[in-house]
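G.,

No rush on this.
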Amino acid sequence: MKALQITGENEFEIVEVPQERPQDDQVTVRIEIVSTCPRWDMSMMDGKDMFDASKRPDYPLPPGFPGHEMAGTVVAVGSKIASLKVGDRVAALEHLIGSGAYAEYLNYREHELIKLPDNVGWKQAVSFELLKCVLIGLLQFGDLSGKSMLVSGLGPAGILAMQAARLMGASRVVAVDITQERIDFVNGLGIGVAKHSDELGDERFELGYDCVGAAASVQNVLERVDSHLVVFGVLKGEVRYGGHLWFKGITLESYKYRSFEAADQALLLDLVANKGLNTECLQTHHVPFYRYQETIELLKRQVAIKVYAYPPTDFEAASEVK
């Protein structure tokens, strides 16, 4: 089968690799669509570790890595598989180790997948792994009913968070960013209220959800919340928690990853399939794998929110060179 492989800094190839048979506790998925995880893709191509920019990745990366947001069709099942069958439509909920999803096929364990209802399309489902992570963070607040929330950052996570918080009961949700083009794009979608950070005035919120991670962003949110802030983005820099925050009893909490249980999965599907959470809006640009450098440039310039590809067809012109 074909896969994209990052072989060095700003270097990649389309390679032929063996298609592995599923183990007893695995299924093989034909990947119908795959989407970027911008920070992963840019870091891997820039010669930087995802979590520590002072380190370099160990090149060449495994074939298909760092692709992990995908949706596809089950084409083979191991002998111990109980909940999935050939022909089922699924989306990835996790897969970060070993070979990745920038490939035609990949093997998964059952808990790494979510079965899709018929009314959820491929472009809606491809970034369910990100939506899962966003929901885990939002659930750290407990019941959102009737509460106000400030979401910082209008990247993919922030765009999902502002919608999910409102659909989960928040009474008022405002999302902020410093890029006017992204603010205008989000407001044009009609999915909620987006503002420039400088336009908040004296607005205050009970809850804050930071999807940026930069210390300045976290600090800005922290100074505007009265109860609880969860930092979803990978924190970079130092945040000041002064006495005025301590006296208010404000909770400052990091994102806590955990397993995504059956009730969580039901919530995710309900938000998308029944309540109208717009996940497809993240998929703004389609670029075949053999033009992967173009994908990276679109992400770096923030022209694209996410870039997607179709493995069944998007390897075909690989002979045209990168």
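When you get to it, here's the other one too:
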Amino acid sequence: MKGIIAEHQEAALQVTDNLELPEPSTNQILVKSIYTAVNPVDHMMINMGILVESWPFVPGCDAAGVVVEVGGEQAASRFSVGDEVCGCTRLGTKGYSTCQEFFIMDADLTIPKPKNLSLAEAATIGVGVETAALGIFKGCAIPLPDPDNLPAPKNEWAVVLGGASTVGRFGIQLFKLLGYKVIASCGTRSFEAVKQTGADVVLDYKIPTTDQVSEALNVLDETRRNLHYVLDAAAGGLEFGRALFNELPEGVPRYFATTNDWSGITDFEGGKSHCIQLGLIGRDSGAGVNDTLARYVPVLARLFELGKLLPAPYVEIGNGGFDAVLEALEYQKSGAAGSKKVIVKVQDR
């Protein structure tokens, strides 16, 4: 089987044709990789070795493809050969990486491709929407909604730091669907895009934190009791969270959910903190994350099908094939895509 590998940590990526074809277990499916997205975590795994269980390592954890084998009865209750699927796979685990011809997905954690999305669009949603959902529903303790009966708008606010990122954009969309007004931070070049995503107020993340907090506080009611949530999609928002929470009245519920799961962030300023651990997806050590995401998947899929959640903006690199995958990995690493998701066609359907 063909794919992309790094022989060891910090090794150059190369195309290989001698990968072992993985075999799905009872509650798994084997998927033909059609489109894969490239994420910063792919380069972090290659360069730092984080989450990588063994070498050589195949990058890719975010894709859309077609089911070619169903592992057993459990998986067959959800999927059939020929179904189009998408989502996030196990990170750093042999057989699950998406930059290869075929990869395994855990059936309970797989998103059936929404009928209104193309395979290319579907490849943009897995990591971003699942991370945002973990931050909002688990980290901020907001109940999972009924997609067909969403809450009415309310005069309550949430903050999304890193609003131009894929996680940030899905965070903005989810908060808006839950009825909240949203303050988002990003670079000035992304202001319009973040506003179009749904943010009511946009902050320049490059100005001093105290100024960002002051701008956020200016939109609250006089009591400052109507802001409760901060989703830190940029993994660097602890200073903002501390400064903001310190300005809120005593007794106001406050939640800080962050993609920074390596710095040991704990509760602060009377608030509750949650470190999002998408890297545990599918693993035995991630039972809590897996059970949680299994409940989220049907809700998220329904929101996409209803057109209430929209896929991420993306740029497609190359003309397909594994040389194009190498090109896409380098393109994402260069930062040339800006806030857009980088995707590449691995092979024809």
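The first helix runs from residue 40 to 48. The chain has ten helices and 15 strands.

Enjoy the weekend,
O.
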